[in-house]
Amino acid sequence: MKRANGKRIGARVVSYAILLFWIVITLIPLYWMLVMSLKDTSMSASFSPEWFPKNPSVATYIRFFTETDAMRWLGNSLFISTVLTFTNVLFCSLAGYAFAKLRFPGRNTIFWMLLGTMMIPAQVTLIPVYIIVVNTLQLGNTYTAIMLPMFATVGNIFLMKQYMSTLPTTLIQAARIDGCSEWRIFYKIILPISKPGLAVLAIFTFVATWNEFFWPFLVTQTSSMRTIQIGLASFKFAEATDFGAMMAGSVIAALPMFILFFSLQKYFLQGITIGAVKG
Amino acid sequence: MATIVFEGITKTFADAKKGGIFTAVDEATFEIKDKEFLVFVGPSGCGKTTSLRMIAGLEKQTGGNIYIDGQLVNHVHPKDRDIAMVFQDYALYPHMSIEQNLSFGLKNMKIEKSIIEEKVAYASKILGLDQLLDRKPRELSGGQRQRVALGRAIVRDPKVFLFDEPLSNLDAKLRVQMRIELAELHQRLGATIVYVTHDQVEAMTLGERIVVMNEGKVQQIASPQELYARPQNMFVAGFIGSPAMNFIPAYVLSENQLQMGDYLLDVPLDRQDYVRAYVNRQVMFGIRPEHILLDPKGSVEVKVNVFEHLGAENLLYFSFNEQSVISKTAGENFIKAGETIAMTFQMEKMHLFDIETKQRIG
Amino acid sequence: MATIVFEGITKTFADAKKGGIFTAVDEATFEIKDKEFLVFVGPSGCGKTTSLRMIAGLEKQTGGNIYIDGQLVNHVHPKDRDIAMVFQDYALYPHMSIEQNLSFGLKNMKIEKSIIEEKVAYASKILGLDQLLDRKPRELSGGQRQRVALGRAIVRDPKVFLFDEPLSNLDAKLRVQMRIELAELHQRLGATIVYVTHDQVEAMTLGERIVVMNEGKVQQIASPQELYARPQNMFVAGFIGSPAMNFIPAYVLSENQLQMGDYLLDVPLDRQDYVRAYVNRQVMFGIRPEHILLDPKGSVEVKVNVFEHLGAENLLYFSFNEQSVISKTAGENFIKAGETIAMTFQMEKMHLFDIETKQRIG
Amino acid sequence: MAETVQVTPSKLSLFLRDYGWCYVFILVPILVFLLFTFIPVIYAFVMSFQQYHVMGSTFIGLENYQTMVQDEIFWRSMRNTFVFTVATVPVSVGITLVLAVLIFPRGKKVQTFFKASLYLPTVASGVTMALVWFWIYDPTNMGLLNMILNYIGIENTMWLGSRSTALFSLILMSWLTGHGAGIILYLAALGGIPKSLYEAADIDHASGWSQFKHITMPLLKPTTLYLLVMGIIGSFQVFMSIYLMTQGGPNFATTTIAYLIYVHAFEYYQFGLAAAESFALGIVIILASVFQFKLMSSDVEF
Amino acid sequence: GGDEEKRDVVKVWTYPVHGEYEGELKESIAAFEKENPTIKVEYEVLSWAEGLQKFDIALNSGSPPDLYFGRPLGKYKETELLVPIDDKLSIDLSDYDEVALDHMTLEGSMYGLPLYQYLHVWGGNKALLEEYDVDYEKIQLEGWTWDEFYELASIGDQENDHGDRQYGFVFQGVDEELLDHLARNNGIPYRMTEEGIQWDDDRILEAMTFIVKLRDEGIMPAETAAIDAAKRQEMYYNYQALFYGRAIPYADAIVQNRNQEIQDGVTEGEELDFVLLPIPHHEGEVEVSQGGAEGYLLFTQNNADEAHVENSVKVLEHLAGADAIGKTSSALALPIIHKEAADNYELPLSDENRLAAERLASNVLPPNTITSELAAKDDMFKTQVVVPTFQGLISGELTPEEAFEKFKTEAASAKYQP
Ligand SMILES: Nc1ncnc2c1ncn2[C@@H]1O[C@H](COP(=O)(O)OP(=O)(O)OP(=O)(O)O)[C@@H](O)[C@H]1O
Ligand SMILES: Nc1ncnc2c1ncn2[C@@H]1O[C@H](COP(=O)(O)OP(=O)(O)OP(=O)(O)O)[C@@H](O)[C@H]1O
Ligand SMILES: [Mg+2]
Ligand SMILES: [Mg+2]
């Protein structure tokens, strides 16, 4: 018994060591971002990161907020990401559920068509998409244009399909017997027991759309329509970059994701379906 | 009104590994009458659950038609069939409290809140769940979960109830109570009930008629008494009754005498007409354990191999004509293994079967 | 050698909604002997599964100590306890074929391949799973799944077997077979077996001793005969036996006479010493249904309310001293509801209980 | 048998009754897909047979495809892409799994800490990420990696500057970063595995490793499949890190097909050729994904 | 309100040319709109990293902006949406620097107006130069040869005060720019001419041999192949480089800024001063400076009408007018390419650096006048041959001879023949 305990403690030490190593690797960029944001070095052409902020100052943050449309950009990003998170959670889980749990003609064909097109690199479809959105639909410089292509993404559908395939099918059947409409089954049974999956989907979507740079950049023209990521890029000038303000902006831009993460994280881990079925 | 008609219903499953198909239900044709309490029995894996699921519309039959109330329901969605069901594996909603589990179906039907509360209170009371209403399924014992599954059905007021072994995980006492409640429920609601059970007492007490299935095929449909007294074939005979009927090969010496090993036994008068056709042939003689009586004046002398005391009754195991035979006797007679005793076969209770077709003779 | 000792074992669960704790097992102290076949019975939710899980180490007791083989195992990991278990909810590995489910434990123990194959073949044969070895659990019927769960335990050769209602979803015939197999297994392996069941026949036939639990408390531990003949308290008396013992309040007129309503009944000689202390007091009279006999010369005349024919036997329901009473009679006597009949109470089989303490008198 | 006369509904209405709502469930994503993926892909497909020009393209048949297969750099970048994918995807998914499994059994607080620390850095701006990695790969002895290697007596290496190490450097970078999302996903999936299976496995004498191999891994299959397929798509289409770190160099050592497509499309405006290359890449990815699906097809259902 | 709709909208896409550019642009546009009430200018400031791609997509979708910041490229012209402005201008071009105008010209037509002319130079660390008694002012005024450079740089190769290795010369090695600089100052001004690829000449071998010598002798870091712009800048700041390239005149301002920050305690490091230096030339060859112009280009959409194009030209003339040029050039410390502006604006350079900058600006090579077809081939040669070969050379995988051999055979191949 003693030995077994020793082994267990040893394993635990090793596992913590591995985790800590990884955390160091992943946290460095975050840390430097913070350190740099506290350094008011306006316009040095090049920038070497430092370990400890010397004379930390919040001037960069002030500059970020006063000299740009930062509030507007943050608002835009918040609006877009919130809407997209909502639509993706709703529509992708619906579709994922259909692909995972419902049987209907063409199911596999449709699914593979969806997945298959993801495999064509975006570089070549950019022009046709641009033509559709900007030239044909005349949606240039609108929120609609920014949001539409990411309204319900195939990757998210795939994610939900995979997640929902592990849910017990008899629950769905029980609900059908209980007189539930298919929509209500989804809403009352599937959604609640998929909470961990939905939380993951939500945070992924929010982060992805929040960090999305290129497409919003492509279809917006005015500063008032820009998202925070596009805004951040404007601190790069021809021969210099305002790293301080840019990093300050990055830190600010990271906050909503932090908040969302921590408010959702309790859902990430839940054995929700325990006790549902025997066998 | 809720009759259910199975018309040549077949259900097959792909059985990938064996590269073929597996037939779970095979050309089943029968009719369940309105307001009938019909019990399905049969060995494990014979297709009872599958049949129930087809009635509910959860499983689509491979062939044949199902009618409910005379209406073809092949394309009717489960929720539109007005059915309540207890799933064999419970299928409780894990994220809902017991109360929510019980009331979910009613809420779907937009029943008034006060009525829901009343029904849930009533059901949870008779199921002994009233202390557990706030718990989640994962915080219940096995039997409690089963009761929730049962409760979820009985709060409803559907045309048809489907019960898939709803009492299997309950203790004897509770089971008796539940049986009574279910019988009452049936009376009160007048719904058609289809009930799967492995418990013969349940089948016998609850069922107006019993369907015996085996390997996907319907073997016999009859009232409990009929099934017990006149099983149509050896399978039914052996399946109904516990311990099972004893089967002993017999040789028909004449229309009024059977030979089994060293013993000659008389055929009762009313059976002789049927036996006549089998004179000089082997048949299978069947007799239930409770029809072999301890009788000091009995003609059959046997050595007891095993003696089992079950409280109210005892089981005696002995060999007869090279078959192991069981007799069920009243609880007060204690006998030691190895003892030799005399017994009587109640020949008027005997059953005879054709050895080839396994069908009843007479 | 594998004795199991429970020493003041308590298990509580947080019961958040009621803001308190729920005691599932309450100060249980008992000893399971080496190679014993011990059966746990008790109403649904009384703590049987929880006790088993504590023996297995899957659940940590809140208080008390568990010893296996005299060794304190409070901190021993389940896999080091050398136990095989059938889970009430099966817990089959959903992604493994039946064969893999059965052989997984053996493979982990690095048993030789040929032996594994042999054992799996043997177990699947006696469980009737040999045609299903390639299937996944979800392609099985409920009873088949249960058999896999059982098979997973019986291929093993552990110090202790824990069976949690292993036969509840099987049909009567299979259950009888399995019972025999389990008895044989016990003989062959000489392992200690702890067995939870709701089936009294199982409990009576398999158990060397039976533990009766109620609401987390151990009520009585005794051999089946003892439990049946001398239940220690009203709970045990009412719980063991099906249909349950009839309880009728009685007034002790004298050491040799009880009054129940209009009837006076004699106290058997050997009980009078105990009854003496209760003269002129109320007691609870208990008698099993099988000890109320149909007897044309019987002293008790009653009107039958309900008559149930269960094949080998019948149940008669009638009122006696304002109590609903059940009598179990042999199968051949058909009686109609409403008929008035004479009966005899076998007073030498009677039980008496203190009304307050509910404990047995004598 | 049925007495009432049935009004036989039309086939279509039966079909809709049986499956109508299934299609409703997938309707919105399908519409979005048609408009923003399907039509553009078809458009690009047509483009691959054209000499693209804004003011009017000309059909040139298979010429783009011919040019493509005759281009030595195309094949080289195919090879790079392939090497990169094979080297990164399985390893990354493996690392993700290991990290998730190490975090999973920890207490709530510890778990949250690790989860957050491993996931949240994905929000750090790309610029800082690049800065960090340029520092790690600094060719002088100021670089982290060289510093470590110098310490054990290995000379400075020009990680990103040398043909022999550049691709490896990118691979190493992908091994060490970007597991956050996968970890979160695996953790969610781990939470969904019934505890009772581990209890059964404990009773079955399964060691920690055996439980991992025989319970955890198989039951995580759906998630693993997702991560593998998405990983394959992502790494076959890898572009950003190359654009930022090496621009395809040195000597095309890190030119991947996606980078080549970018170069052809935007440096040379050879959109037709880029489209042809995209479809070639698409087919490779589809094959690889189908292979993954076949390998891990059996669904897990409880 | 009502007027709003009738106003012709001219779209301008530009870049954050320098920190204050957007503000200046805004003012300038406001002023313009006041004068031209019928025109509305919508501008968008793109980001440097991805703006090009956005423009490429818009252009190839047939909807480019009317004015776009950049240089005229062959591929733009091929889309037929790039508009020549020669006959559309209403201003006098004589004020503009001729070379700068040439840079806005492609195959004889002018497509836009320059905003500034950039200048690529080398730099030195003033403190170190003074420490080693280098007469840098002379070099600034007269230029220097490879040998002179080599000798001076050799002094620089030692350990600096922090104990780090100090190099005589640091240049980024991830692209071929160094070879480009040396080739031009060894008598090959253009890689591609009407006769074909010129880099099959012994002079290119000389340049490569020289580079390898610098590296092998430790004057340049051995790791040059992996040194990028940021890294060499850092080495320069850290007193690890006596000379470095490539630099721009604006470096002077940046360095001063940094010095200020060091004094304020915001930035860590050692102050230094920037010395603007010419690119050394090979003995007997002419010194040329590296430079080019950028400005606004005129584009049209599928269906634009005459009047709109005229309006766009007006905006163009304004955005690349004297005032804009002056402000931008002075912000970027670049020689001012407009006479009128030159009188009004000062460059933020030390005197000596300003003189040097002005001298070098006059040396800037005029743009290559080859056809766009040839230019495309040149481009292809650069990405497919020069870059990989140079990377091989600088990382030590190829000898100068092998690299030269590669150039010769490739240059002779049909792909790159005019
Ligand atoms: N996680 C839990 N949280 C709260 N209460 C629990 C939890 N698990 C079990 N219980 C309660 O503990 C009691 C004992 O449960 P246990 O599973 O041991 O019952 P059991 O005797 O096996 O019953 P059954 O025959 O119905 O399976 C039950 O009343 C149950 O409701
Ligand atoms: N998905 C499936 N794939 C293959 N065979 C199946 C599937 N589902 C059920 N079966 C088989 O069909 C037969 C009938 O199953 P069913 O569940 O109806 O049995 P049952 O009569 O309810 O048995 P039990 O009493 O054990 O619950 C069984 O032999 C079972 O193995
Ligand atoms: Mg079943
Ligand atoms: Mg239990």
Automatic annotation (TrEMBL), chain A:
UniProt key word Cell membrane: yes
Entries under SUPFAM superfamilies matching the protein: MetI-like (SSF161098)
Membrane topology (UniProt): Multi-pass membrane protein
Keywords recorded for this protein, A-Z: Cell membrane, Membrane, Transmembrane, Transmembrane helix, Transport
Localisation per UniProt entry: Cell membrane
Ranges of residues in domain ABC transmembrane type-1: 74-264
InterPro entries cross-referenced by the UniProt entry: MetI-like, MetI-like_sf
Stretches that traverse the bilayer: 12-34, 78-99, 111-133, 139-159, 198-218, 243-264
Protein name per its UniProtKB record: Carbohydrate ABC transporter permease
Protein source organism: Shouchella miscanthi
From TrEMBL, chains B, C:
Cross-referenced Gene3D superfamilies: 2.40.50.100, Nucleic acid-binding proteins, P-loop containing nucleotide triphosphate hydrolases
SUPFAM superfamilies linked to this entry: MOP-like, P-loop containing nucleoside triphosphate hydrolases
Pfam families named among the record's database cross-references: ABC_tran (PF00005), OB_MalK (PF17912)
UniProt domain ABC transporter: residue ranges: 4-240
Matching InterPro entries: AAA+_ATPase, ABC_transporter-like_ATP-bd, ABC_transporter-like_CS, ABC_transpr_MalK-like, ABC_transpr_MalK/UgpC-like, Mo/tungstate-bd_C_term_dom, NA-bd_OB-fold, OB_MalK-like
SMART domains referenced in this protein's UniProt entry, alphabetically: AAA
Keyword field: ATP-binding, Cell membrane, Membrane, Nucleotide-binding, Translocase, Transport
Protein's recorded name: Sn-glycerol-3-phosphate ABC transporter ATP-binding protein UgpC
Species for this entry: Shouchella miscanthi
High-level lineage: Bacteria, Bacillati, Bacillota, Bacilli, Bacillales
Gene (UniProt): ugpC
TrEMBL record, chain D:
PROSITE patterns for the chain: ABC_TM1
Topology with respect to the bilayer: Multi-pass membrane protein
UniProt keyword Disulfide bond present: no
TM regions (residue ranges): 21-46, 82-104, 116-137, 166-188, 225-245, 268-291
Predominant subcellular localization, coarse grouping: membrane
Residues forming coiled coils: none
Domain of life: Bacteria
Keyword Membrane attached: yes
Pfam families: BPD_transp_1
ABC transmembrane type-1 domain residues: 78-292
SUPFAM superfamilies for the chain: MetI-like (SSF161098)
Keywords: Cell membrane, Membrane, Transmembrane, Transmembrane helix, Transport
InterPro entries: ABC_transporter_permease, MetI-like, MetI-like_sf
Subcellular location: Cell membrane
Family as reported in the entry's similarity comment: Belongs to the binding-protein-dependent transport system permease family.
Record protein name field: Sugar ABC transporter permease
Gene source species: Shouchella miscanthi
